[in-house]
Amino acid sequence: MFSDIVKNVRVKSPLINVITNFVTVNDCANILLAAGASPCMAYDIREVEDIVSICQGLVINLGSIEDDRAMLLSTKKANEIGIPSVFDPVAAGASRLRNDLCDEFLQNVKFSVIRGNISEIKSLAVGSSTTRGVDASEADEVTEDNLPEIVKMAKTLSEKTGSVIAISGKIDVVADFQKAYVIKNGHPMMAMITGSGCMLTTLIGAYCAANPDKILESAAAAVCMMGICGEYAYQKTIDTDTGTSSFRNYLIDYVSKLDDEMMKERMKVEIY
């Protein structure tokens, strides 16, 4: 289903500027390289517009708020030149500052994809959630019982923002205003390392940059592939009797090793 989307990243090797938090910047750069893309981490307000002008994609992440002006200028430039931009509203709902920044971004620029956990997306969609900072609250968890409601919320938010909405968790939902992919790949150990969400957002940026005419499918492919790689990484961690640090490295390894056979063996995708 997603084979060509994955291959296009390796063929085109898009340059992606990533403004992410200082905790995960190295992992985000490495996940791009593993996927076949090229990372750039330009943050300075004096150069971000010039850098974005030579890129094929942009990712911004609210994890560590250093200079929101650079994020806004970057996205405006991405909109101006017509390249995909991906927004990760980390900890939306946790503070007035983060809520205000999310409102400012959504009022002034258009993102190709907005990717967050269910609590973050719920905060954007309805103005309230039970966020626990960067982690989703158990009270907001996507389940089989509330899945239709979550799909509807994602489609409504997509129609409102003009963005594809990607919700990651035990069950992933990736939707535009008409169609949703429900993805059931991944492993709970992915939540036990810092940066799995940031890496996923960055991977979405690479997939969309290499396939700008297929934003919904590219976002769904990235979410699915990250989940598949998480499953393989967990099995490798068990086989080698290692732990969370090794799991993180194995996760990146499998992104670099991903092929058609691995995808076909593990892919769990439904369309709503």
Q: What does this protein look like?
A:
- The structure is a single chain.
- This protein has 272 residues and is an alpha/beta fold.
- It has a single domain (3-271), classed as UDP-N-acetylmuramoyl-L-alanine:D-glutamate ligase.
- It is 51% helix and 14% strand.
- It has 11 helices and 9 strands.
- It has helices at 3-12, 25-35, 48-53, 68-81, 96-108, 118-126, 147-161, 196-210, 215-239, 244-257, 260-266; strands at 15-19, 38-40, 57-61, 85-88, 113-117, 164-168, 172-175, 180-183, 269-271.
- A 9-stranded mixed beta sheet has the order 2-1-3-4-5-6-7-8-9, with helices on both faces.
- A hairpin with a 4-residue loop joins strand 7 (172-175) and strand 8 (180-183).
- Helix 8 crosses helix 9.
Instruction: Tally the beta strands.
Output: 9
Distance between the termini: 15 Å
Question: Low-confidence runs (pLDDT<50, min 5 residues)?
Answer: none
Give the structural class: alpha/beta
- Helical run tally: 11
- Order of SSEs: HEHEHEHEHEHHEEEHHHHE
Residue share in helices? 40-55%
What is the oligomeric state here?
single chain
CATH architecture descriptor name: 3-Layer(aba) Sandwich
Adjacency order of strands in the biggest sheet? 2-1-3-4-5-6-7-8-9
Please render the helix and strand layout as text.
Elements: H1 3-12, E1 15-19, H2 25-35, E2 38-40, H3 48-53, E3 57-61, H4 68-81, E4 85-88, H5 96-108, E5 113-117, H6 118-126, H7 147-161, E6 164-168, E7 172-175, E8 180-183, H8 196-210, H9 215-239, H10 244-257, H11 260-266, E9 269-271
Parallel strand pairs: 1-2, 1-3, 3-4, 4-5, 5-6
Antiparallel strand pairs: 6-7, 7-8, 8-9
Helix pairs in contact: 1-8, 2-8, 2-10, 6-7, 8-9, 9-10
